[in-house]
Specification:
The protein has 4 domains: 8-123, Nucleic acid-binding proteins (OB fold (Dihydrolipoamide Acetyltransferase, E2P), Beta Barrel); 129-281, Rossmann fold (3-Layer(aba) Sandwich); 283-317; 413-454, no CATH class. The longest helix has 44 residues, at 322-365. It contains 13 helices and 13 strands. With 466 residues, the protein is an alpha/beta fold. Helix content is 46%, strand content 19%. The strands form 3 sheets. A 5-stranded mixed barrel has the order 1-2-3-5-4. Strands 7-6-8-9-10 form a 5-stranded parallel sheet, with helices on both faces. It is elongated, with a radius of gyration of 69 Å. Helix 5 (167-179) runs parallel beside helix 9 (272-279) and helix 6 (197-211) packs parallel to helix 7. It comes from Paraburkholderia kururiensis. It is an enzyme of class 3 (hydrolase). Keywords: Cytoplasm, Exonuclease, Hydrolase, Nuclease.
Amino acid sequence: MNSDSFDRSSDRSFTAPIPGGTEAVVPVSALNRAIGTLLERSFPLVWVSGEVSNFTRAASGHWYFSIKDAQAQMRCVMFRGRAQYAEFMPREGDRIEVRALVTMYEPRGELQLNVEAVRRTGQGRLYEAFLKLKAKLEAEGLFDAARKRPLPAHPRAIGVVTSMQAAALRDVLTTLCRRAPHVPVIVYPAPVQGTGAADKLAAMVQAANARNEVDVLIVCRGGGSIEDLWAFNEEVLARAIAASALPVVSGVGHETDFTIADFAADVRAPTPTAAAELVSPQRVLLLRDLDHRHAMLARGFGRMMERRAQQLDWLARRLVSPAERLARQRTHLQQLTVRLASAGARPVRDAKARFALVQMRWQRCRPDPARQQLALDTLAQRLHGALARRHERATARVASLAARLDVLSPQRTLERGYAALLDVQSGEALRSPAQLKPGKRLTVHLAQGAADIALADVQPRLTEGF
């Protein structure tokens, strides 16, 4: 529905009569305009309650949705000028009350509610049950990503759990026939709507696991309201899918539809057709890949044959006749003989060259006796002269010291008339008259000799000099 809905104020002034008579022809636009005017005049602003369904917020800011109850539904539009003042944005399954005017959308001749105000009255019963069950199973870990299993790349058989009368089954079979006509498909029929549908769907999932004749399982149905899809929101089906040993792909409704089965399955597909595409390898791509691999194998085999042929040619070139082989060995032996003779002569030449070099170095370093004798004589003369000069210096020094010693000699002192007195017992020289005692034996040293004397009477006298 577009934002260019008719202007209610202008349509109220429209009073185009509907011509009477069987021959009158009325344009569709005029008829719709008249109906819209009649509706707006007959139904004042009224509060309408219901559950939100198919809510859409357009890029222009307008809201488009439906409100429904157990028996009927009505399309609604809330333009941006009104929507921007709303206290909340409705969500799928919310139970709300709208203050609206009954109008006609002339371009398509659809009855709708032009909403001026909206207020919340609580979530819908089914949606509330959906959220409660989802939270319960999620808390148990049934939706954990670690439990999800990858889909087989090349399934041997594909199972489909759905109704035999469902349009989704035709879409799935058409897609599988187009993409993988070589893969067999087994249908496990079960009702997808109505009382007991969830139990029968769960039983078919369990039967597919028990029979173990497929590699992957599709649980699908077409789109619909939350009531139509409720069988896929039942706990029994969710637990059967979670306990399945086969990988399960859920393809329920349209892209915007989410069910408990979607969360419990290993892979969620937006539509049944998408589910069929997920589980089936595309035959055209497989054939293309097979052709590519066949070409690679052929090229590899051709290259291997070429290498083997080249190796065979190389081995054939190495294979020679015995006569030619003997000739080659004879030639090789001659070459070795020449190399041996050359190798034997080379050490002799090298030794002679080294001997000549050593001889030349020895001649250069050979001693000269005459020259060495002359150098030795020169050194002997220098040595004799040095010794004579050293002896003269020593003799002169000894004479000088002897003269100095002679001057300081005690004998010279005794020759001048002095005498030295020594105690016979101690051998010490006497220096004080106090040491002279009667009866003490002394040795007197004079210039011409020495004499031992004994003191009889001593009278000491201290003087400072002669």
